[in-house]
Design goal:
With 264 residues, the protein is α+β, with helices and mostly antiparallel strands. The chain contains 6 helices and 15 strands.
Length: 264
């Protein structure tokens, strides 16, 4: 009796019932899911195993059991946050038990996959500029474009801790419109989520400051490595690469400093 209660407890945990039970012949589907990296096999808990509309979730030992899979050919989908989806086509008999072991072999961007799946679950994929930062930009009462040099600490002009070489005129409406549109492009943020890095040193040469009611938000542009960083002091920060949409960033800088030889 004890063994039977354990089995039923496991199957009730892992089996996702349908509104209507299948009327034809059915089979049981069971097995395990693990990580197979560097020759090791580690159980994966909370992985979803779906056979059409039938599905279950692995337990702490990586095992799953799905009841009442109708006979026929089905696509099995195995998915877990941070890992590539496994797709498998199987033919299930009219009765009996089918056993299968699935193994995640990892991918080129495991951290990226984890972040991607987490953002998908939150309804925030594809990535774009953070809504708080976007509001600060659009509602700014004053926008300043500053030429900065992180290595020149001899200057007497500073904006916070940043050495300022020069300040350009207020950006035109068209330049700002192009910049805001570019910052909504997902392709600017995906390389950072993937963990990609340029070999050159990050040395921003232009800072754009958005000011409103005594508060400010800064965007730093490094045209050497193509990276930008936007942030509110003590608050939200976000980074990206200007590469896919470099035009608006370059035009904004050139509009402010048309005679600067060290800008692209």
């Amino acid at each position: 009796m004890g063994d039977m209660s354990v089995k039923w407890g496991l199957s009730s945990l892992l089996f996702v019932p349908l509104m209507f039970a299948p009327s034809g012949p059915v089979a049981w589907f069971e097995g395990e899911v693990s990580d197979c990296v560097a020759g090791r096999s580690v159980p994966v808990s909370f992985a979803n195993v779906m056979v059409g509309r039938y599905g279950g979730m692995t337990d702490a030992s990586g095992r799953f059991r799905i009841a009442s899979v109708p006979a026929g050919r089905w696509v099995v989908r195995v998915q877990c946050v941070g890992r590539e989806v496994i797709l498998d086509t199987m033919v299930f008999p009219e009765k009996g038990t089918v056993t299968k072991h699935y193994c995640f072999t990892g991918g080129p961007y495991p951290r990226f996959l984890y972040l991607r799946d987490s953002l998908v679950a939150q309804g925030r994929w594809h990535p774009t500029i953070d809504s708080t930062l976007a509001v600060c930009m659009h509602q700014a009462e004053r926008i300043r474009v500053l030429r900065i040099n992180w290595r020149d600490w001899s200057t007497r002009s500073f904006s916070g801790p940043v050495p300022v070489i020069a300040e350009g005129p207020t950006p035109s409406d068209s330049s700002l419109r192009e910049l805001f549109e570019a910052l909504e492009d997902s392709s600017l943020y995906i390389p950072v989520l993937q963990g990609d890095r340029h070999m050159c040193e990050y040395e921003p040469g232009v800072m754009v400051r958005f000011e409103r009611e005594g508060h400010s938000m800064d965007m730093f542009l490094c045209f050497g490595c193509g990276e930008f960083n936007i942030g509110i002091s003590g608050g939200v920060h976000q980074a990206g690469w200007i590469g896919p949409r470099a035009g608006p960033f370059i035009r904004l800088a050139r509009e402010a400093f048309p005679n600067e030889p060290n800008l692209p």
